[in-house]
């Protein structure tokens, strides 16, 4: 059994501090959370010292971050000052700078005691793609790790404790064991701690497929990897949906942070001020619903922003299915994570209460769509996003059609978007289907017994006011608002767009003249040909 890494640092209940001290970097990693830092100025040495003094009042541990923290020219002076305040110091690094001759020894001499090394690749080619640098730098990284190994052998009294973090994404799928072998060769006995995490999607030009998990193949690989991890190596999961590691959920570092009540302060938003890091419990409270995991027992302790499956780069697909209900109970995972005794803390209890009250209309709506069989129309498949959005593959009169049902909003292509009860229906493919086919499919969908709008109450992503207005318009005008349909004698509908709490319908007279009508749930006179 591998040992679990608890909190990143045991700081006696005090706050853990993360200091962003530079935007310098020697890589351009596709997944870097720093993003575009051109407007962020590196704090001066005096500012960093003030932040360290502030940190020392509440914490015993500081992590230096960047971009690449060790590229800061005065990093040795920063470390010496931090040690003078009796702070335990850690530096996040991509490892390349460690290849400088004598630099590892200088870091240890200045007071650095811990290194968090990012290592995500099994070969120079994937390294070059992921870091957008030269493949030669992969050997430089391995050489830097070897310098740490040699230093620790020669100076065990000033050994640098190394925690390696490997992010799971498409460039290392199926390569975790190879990465582990590389690390064991480079670090030797210094390789005592390994964290595994997951990422948000990288740019499409770098990775051809979405990076978000879980995918069945990755889940199998991760479980096999954890089963074969040496028992003496501390192992943790971070930034990861717990369903990705069934049976190993207790290794979640995020969970240990909650159990240990670890508070994190940082200067990420304002370089001169330490403030609370992102509050994941508050984020969960603001938008707790995750359609793919609405049945999961472990949702209250899962890293919520990693289960936002409806991101723009991970839209509805046929493979995007709800996750099977987790077998292990919340109490079991909490007990195993805390050494046999469950220690639920306040934020977990808050999340548990929220989770019990989460509406799950999308799951039921998707099931309802998938069961439709009527008048020559058959729904072949349904996929769902967070917004909510449903991609519906239908067979209508023997022809295949893909429609997207989504909340009412100004569509990118108004002429191919139709009001359907309280949702918008857009044609996805084929690009130019016969209008008769589209209308046949829409008419049959509209004729079914739709779930009431009230079933979506409490779902933050749906604008209930606009949806109610859309439903009122639908009940009054129905399919007359569809392009090509007769809206009024002599007038044909062209397009419908939301306009505040109402809808603006563009209509065309048989003579070619265009006009706009403002549609409300109740007519108020004289606004266009339908007024």
Could you walk me through the main structural features you see in this protein, from its secondary elements to its overall organization?
This protein has 531 residues and is an alpha/beta fold. It has two domains: 14-287, TIM Barrel, CATH 3.20.20; 361-519, no CATH class. Helix content is 29%, strand content 22%. It contains 14 helices and 20 strands. The protein has helices at 45-58, 75-84, 103-110, 124-131, 136-154, 176-187, 216-227, 253-259, 280-286, 330-337, 346-356, 361-370, 435-447, 464-477, and strands at residues 3-4, 15-20, 61-65, 88-93, 114-118, 161-168, 191-198, 234-238, 263-266, 275-276, 373-374, 377-385, 389-396, 399-406, 417-420, 423-429, 486-488, 491-499, 502-509, 514-519. A ten-stranded mixed beta sheet has the order 1-8-7-6-5-4-3-2-9-10. A six-stranded antiparallel beta sheet has the order 11-12-13-14-16-15. Strands 17-18-19-20 form a four-stranded antiparallel beta sheet, with helices on one face. Helix 5 (136-154) packs across helix 6. Residues 4-13, 201-214, 306-314 and 524-529 have low confidence and may be disordered.
Write a short abstract of this structure.
This protein is α/β, with parallel strands linked by helices and 531 residues long. It is built from 14 helices and 20 strands.
Give the number of helices. Answer: 14
Percentage of residues in strands? 15-25%
Poorly predicted tracts of residues: 4-13, 201-214, 306-314, 524-529
- Helix/strand structural class: alpha/beta
Which CATH class of the largest domain?
Alpha Beta
Measured between the Cα atoms of the first and last residue, the distance is 73 Å
Strands side by side in the biggest sheet: 1-8-7-6-5-4-3-2-9-10
Give the biggest sheet.
Answer: 10 strands, mixed
- At the third CATH level, what is the topology name of the largest domain? TIM Barrel
Name the average pLDDT.
81
Q: How many structurally independent domains? A: 2
